[in-house]
Amino acid sequence: VLDLDLYLRILLDGGQALLLEQVCADYRRHSGSLSSAQASDGVRFREESDYFLLMREAMRAAGWPKAARAATAHWTSRLHALLRAAAALAAGHPRQAATMVKLAVRLPPVVRRPA
């Protein structure tokens, strides 16, 4: 979430992001990372869900309705939680699988805006 947060804050503050064809950095994940460890117990997915809800409101305030809808859905995070659920079930951890499924289908609270 930290990388995404950095880019979103830059854009929300009026900055720009450029896409270069040349590779400037190589992003590598591994099973021993903090992010991977937090994904196995669900902490990461809870944090991501909370973050996306916060960003949903920031996107709405910025006048970016498509981005706000994307933040509400946060499909990549939800799909990752479902993949983790399948892996937990295959490894014989039904409780962990159930937790991941709950996190994947967790619905965001409805925010009522003044008329």
What would your notes on this structure say?
There is one protein chain. With 115 residues, this protein is mainly alpha-helical. The protein has a domain of 72 residues. It contains six helices and no strands. Helix 3 runs antiparallel to helix 4 and helix 5 packs antiparallel against helix 6.
Structural class: mainly alpha
In terms of DSSP E residues, the strand content is under 5%
Number of strands: 0
Q: Round the mean pLDDT to the nearest integer and report it.
A: 84
Rounded to an integer, what's the Rg over CA atoms? 16 Å
**Ends: how far apart?**
32 Å
Q: Low-confidence runs (pLDDT<50, min 5 residues)?
A: none
| Overall 3D form | flat
Helix tally equals: 6
Order of helices and strands: HHHHHH
Largest sheet: none
Give a short synopsis of this structure:
The chain has six helices and no strands. The chain has 115 residues and is mainly α.
List the helices and strands and how they pair.
Elements: H1 2-12, H2 34-41, H3 43-62, H4 65-73, H5 75-90, H6 94-105
Helix pairs in contact: 3-4, 5-6
What key attributes describe this structure?
115 residues; mainly alpha
